[in-house]
Protein 1
Amino acid sequence: LRPEQARLRVLGPQVLAPLHCGPGLDGFVALGQRDGGAYTGEALRLIAALADQTGVALERAAVVNDLERRVRDLNVISQMSQALSFTLAYDDLLELLYAQTSKILPAAHFAIALQDPRRSTLNYAFYLDDDERDTTLEGRTVPAAHVLEREVARSGAPLLFNDYPDELKRRGLTPDPRGYACWIAVPLISGQDILGLLTAAGPESYTEDQLKIFNTVADQAAGALTRARLLREAETRARQLSTLNDISLTISSTLDLDRLLERVVASAVDVLGAEAGSLYLIDDESGGYVFRVAVGPVGQELVGTRMPPGRGFVGEAIEHGRAVIVNDAQHDPRWFKGADETTGFITRNLITVPLRFKDKAIGAIQLLNKRDGSRFTEDDQNLLAALAAPAAIAIENARLFTQTDQALAARVEELSIMQRIDRELNTSLDIQRVMDLTIDWALTRTGAIAGSVSILTDEGLQIVATRGYGDTVEGMQNRPIPIDRGIMGRVARTGRISLVRDVRQDPDYRGVLAETRSQMTLPILHEQRVVGVINLESHGLDAFSDEHIGFVTRLVDHASIAIANARLYAQVAAANVAKSDLMSFVAHELKTPMTPIKGYTDILLSGAVGQLSDGQRQFLNVIRNNIERMKTI
């Protein structure tokens, strides 16, 4: 009883009796001086018996108290178990855990910290200090200085310290400014996964039994939190799928390509909670990627820019046909930092999903940075891929509609042009005018730098109209081109179109312009017979398309009729001239002998050479009258 010596000296007891509730000394009875003298042996035996009975009673009371406490704890755990089974709201579940835990584990501080696998962080989900909930700390990462909490979350082993400040000193850690004497923490374990931990602190010591009960609470809480998390994820997924369905219906209802692309990216950004997004389409001609849409705070200045094929994460996703997720872009050697430097945007995480239509890549969608700071996951990949599938179909439909609409508009425009051409050609019966109109329209619609139209004659191809050659063809217009020479001669002989994508590769090419790189030559046919040739030249390689061939073919079909009409008119005009010349010649040749006949007849009738008989005069008058009639004719 050395710790009690000071108190015992004040009391001055004469008799001390031990109280045993267990194997050791649990207390004592102290009696002062007895009135009337010393304690007898009988009195001492009575005191000893009374102490023994008191020890037994105290032991029994302690057992009863312990049983009552255990029953109370079990009732709390049972009630918690039932309540947790029916509590589905996440925040309600956290409140319930604290309310029930506080009944069996007194604590001025209580916190629930959960692992966030998306960000690989340990965050506070519930935080209470001095019996007041602090929501400003909820959702924040557990500070790195809280080493003990991170140790429990990492190892899955509970910790209990009833000398909390001393333990922090022993570990060389920063003292807790809250000044709690006792600290306890248990892990939240579901299956093989450590979900987080429950932690409590206060001025009162915690027992091993309380640690066991706290562990039991944590086990039940882990199951409830797992169910709540799965339910929340299921609800989120259902909401995303519903939104995805709505988006699919929405994007399939528009055929405006630009509007559709904007809607696809905006929907992807919204569904995945991203900060920014973009969409690239493959350029069919070059194979590169065109930056078509940007949604977010920056990136609008990049719209319209082009990227070489196979470059960057977009190229990787398109070329390999699979999604690319990068959750630390700044330290990834594949990341092109030029885009961030241009826009001022800091890309931390990104996900790129290819757009495919009938096993053919048509582009890619790329999203940047989750708004909540988390990482992109496989679930995000699956969700974005589910959006990309109908988006690709809608984009191709919009493209097809746009192309069809453009083709129809081009066809209508061409028909209008052909009507104008027909009016101009048919109002002219001058073959030179017809040729000039034909070459002018051909150059206008194809973008050729030079061209000519030739008529096929018995001597060869006679150039009638030229454009873009300057003085280099003046001499050629004066003499026909033999049809056994050059590309034009080949077309005149065969009656087939010649499209030379690189004139340097054609042995029949006879150059006039040094800058010519490609040439298109078509026959002008009338009633399946070659009547002429139109030739067009360009300074670009492979400059003429199928559309150009189609237009010029239809142009020369119309022109051939006008050419035939002009040639027929020229032939008729020539016949008329020949007829007039013939009549003039005949009239002149007939009038020449008639003049002297008439003159001599008049002399005879005047009697200048003698008297005429009536019969002679009658015959001369017949001659004279016939001469007059022939003159009139």
Protein 2
Amino acid sequence: MLTLANFALAIQNVFQPDILLAMLVGSMIGVVVGALPGASATMALAVMIPVTFWFEADMSLLLLISVYCSGVFGGSISACLLNIPGTPASAATCFDGAPLTKRGEGGKAILTALIASTFGGLISGIALLFCAPLLAALALKFGAPETMMVALFGLTMVASLSSDKLVKGLIMGALGMLIGTIGLSPTGSARFTFGSIQLYGGLQTVPILIGVFSIPEVIRMLASHGWKMDTSKKSRMRMAFKEIKSIIPTCSIATLVGLIIGLIPAIGPETATFIGYDRAKKMAKEDGETFGKGNIKGVAASEAANNAVCGTSLAPMFALGIPGSGAAMVLMGGLMIHGLTPGPTLFREQMPLLTTLFFGFIIAQVFMLVVGFGACKLAPLVFKVHHLVLAPIILVVCMVGTFATNNSLFDVYIMLAFGVAAYFLGNAGYSCVPMVLGMLLGKQFETNLSRTIVLSQKTGFLSFIMTRPIALVLAGLTIITIILPVIMEQRKKKRLARIALEAEGENKQGAQDMNLQNNADC
């Protein structure tokens, strides 16, 4: 448990000059690597692991934590400015960040992302500091049935993200789920591999994300005569107080989503960013329809959700040895390098060190804010580079980043193939976002559905689900999510019809009054 003595010791340890310098350097590395298309916070952590051999445990882990937090935020810079997510966790940031940039408000977009990232990270860090054992206990409640329901709940977003073109969105969502079945099934049988050993592990997420979001933009750059953006406005890093105030409720909703998603192993910030975006869109009553067209609340929702995952994903790793994300798994390796074994024993024997790390996580958000602000001030300079020069550079960076993920040239081919297909599908009116969502969550749903079926063999599937309160709550939320938009749409149509009738009645009454007046004048 957190004690005043441990907290005072944590403050003393974190504010050592060498540790502060390490956290500053880690934040810089995280922002730079995160902004590179194809890179990820997990990749940045893996690269930094060898460096930590030379440091003490507290400095090493705080360096890695700083890289982790800033790396997740860094992806929003390229997502906003180039419509290319630097990390998979920033995919949903493109929806509103890119339209803002095209309106000449790129500075506002990345400043919104920075504020929301800091908000989500701070709340997540505070939760980690004061509630780590409680969060770890809650993480144990999420088994295969609960994870299955989370994935099913997320799949309902396909309709929300395709509200303008529902049929096309559902087609692309189904295509994504079909793509997710490529490789070995949960039972071990090969599907759609066509005899290729490289397909036995399925198609990797990162190459597809890079291809879908980057290659179409590169093609458009090469085909255009310059940047298609409103240059009448200067892209300043400014936001009015009213705008900052308006995104706080959105950040709160998305942060709550991220805190919960972070506890579930193997889900990660990639899913949290979509679910947080969808929840914020549905909670925005007056401007929900402007999401995807350059609404700062959309940027805030995505970034608050993915950064909120960072803290709570560490709680089950420290307390139980169960990493809540890929990045948490790498951090666990960094912990074990220094002879520290995650689990309940760690909390009993190393509570002063853990308190230092948890408090340092909060301070890492401050460094991210400072470093991120400086990086965002420089980022809009990318538009000073001619598009015919920048497009090939982006293409090369994407290819290198894709190859570096698994050291596989096959992934580069997949990235290029999906990118070209996304370009033509986009021109035909088919958005690839539902496809990506279906692929991400379809895998999770199928895997955990198979596990749930195995676990429920004795009692029966429905009977087993009925004994899992969290799964039942998630199932109820899924049903509400499906039904509520239909009800709201019907109510909207009735309201519009009533307004139209009232307006028609007023027009008729006005015409009658006019006729009476004309007759009286005659």
Protein 3
Amino acid sequence: MKRIFALATALLMAISVAPAQSDQLAELVKLEDPLSGGWIGVDFVENDYFGTSLLTVGNRKTESNYDSWDTILCDSVADPKCQVADYFFDATSIFSPCTATILTNCIESLNATLPDGTTVKGTVKRLWNPQGEFKGDPLLGIPDGGQASTWVLTGTNTANSDEYLLMAGVKGGVPVPAMTTQNNQESKFFGQLFAYLQPVKEIAGKYEDPKMRLVPRGSGGVGIGGGLTWLEGCFMNDTQSCAQKRSFPLDVSYSLTMRFARPISPWLNGRLVDPSISVTDKGNDSTVMTISAKAMRVPEVGGYIKWSDTPEWMKAKYPAGTGGTARTPDAFTTKNLDTRILKVGAGTSGSRAIKEFKDWIPFLQDKPFAMKTYWTIKAITDEPSQKMQQCAQNKFAGIVSSNAAVYSSGAPAWNPESQTLDYTVGAPHYDTEGKLLTGQYVLSMRSDVARCIYGFSAAPISARVEVASEDGNPNVATTVINENKDTGMLTLDASGYHFSTPKLSVKLMQEKTPAPAATPTPSTKPVVTIKTITCTKGKLKKTVKGTSVKCPTGFKKS
């Protein structure tokens, strides 16, 4: 305990956050880097997006073998230098707004609904960073790489900013040889949807070129680096302008409509309140999706530990060449870790993020360094269980949304023994002001998928949510379930529970309709009547039964 206290004290000295001067600047609170060398840090932040579209090929098969990484930047799928056998295309295709010439893989509209029900239609103000554009390949399924866009939604956020930066599109990979040797579904790019919306205020200045570039990793590997000017709070920037973050209003609903040339991922997760999703099949694998929801307030967690005070088991996790964000020029290549400053980006979703969170949270004072607003949605990266896949039938199946700092990256896991849909989340127990942090969890899925999983009929469905905390103390979740017959979606909303890394177990239920009582089948046999008589002979008496009865000889019927 003394050791942990010492580390927590050192960490407290390392964490310095810029105080927010008003609500509109709350998004600019950041985790400050240490001023001296010899620190290891982590953050659990959703910044896994670029300032431009990006197409590469590479041989990277594991996240940890940095020395063997090789990466090549591509101008198009047909770029000759990118035709390398056994390499993989890795594409991030940002969608531009739809036009008369851009008919698919594009943004159809961005609108908002005010608290009084008024609809505000968005208009495009500008596009960002054409230097990242690339030509895709319809045969492989890789969309063209377009540009992020700034939209104006007048009257939605006048206290902060009515301008919104939208980065939305798909990303994913496909083997390079597929281009010339195969043409089947398995060899095609299956895009993983992403959509990031953020209020911004454009500020003139000098900023980093957001175009991604090659950087050394480990002692010989080559990866991708560069990008946006994060430290200035830029959600997007070019070399002369910064779209600086501002906060969302939490009572306005935003509606994004996108067009896709290929099927989208069956399962999504997001940072959304009251999400509503509709998907329209346009034929030939093309779809139109509309996502409507309010923004969500989410804890941002992170901090630094002095390397010399770091436990040995944690030091072993971050050897020389470890990936992350370099805070000193040689952080990726130095062997002298007592001078390195490295911040590991653990992300917010998936088993790795949850594991890192469990390891780090004892040293982070059990609270975030900031509470920020998000409106994001992403495809899952973990493969669903076989039953979930079978019921989804490779079409959009559902979305999970949570305000946790970290969460499972896949669809809820089907537990056949308990007949529950299980999902893990993680967050500090307290917010930045020391108040108990309350969890929110929404599972919205196609009604037919839910009925397929459980074998239910068309009758109404109810639900129960169990929250299992690590300390064994029970958590109480308030559960609301609603089925919308117009959209075909079943939505379960659970709230009121508390963190650290609880497992949420959702059990859907349906009352069995009693079978009607069986109607007796009329008998076709004749009815038989049994008669009884009493016969006497002096003092003797006999009772005779039968269908046709008479007294024996010498007896008389009495």
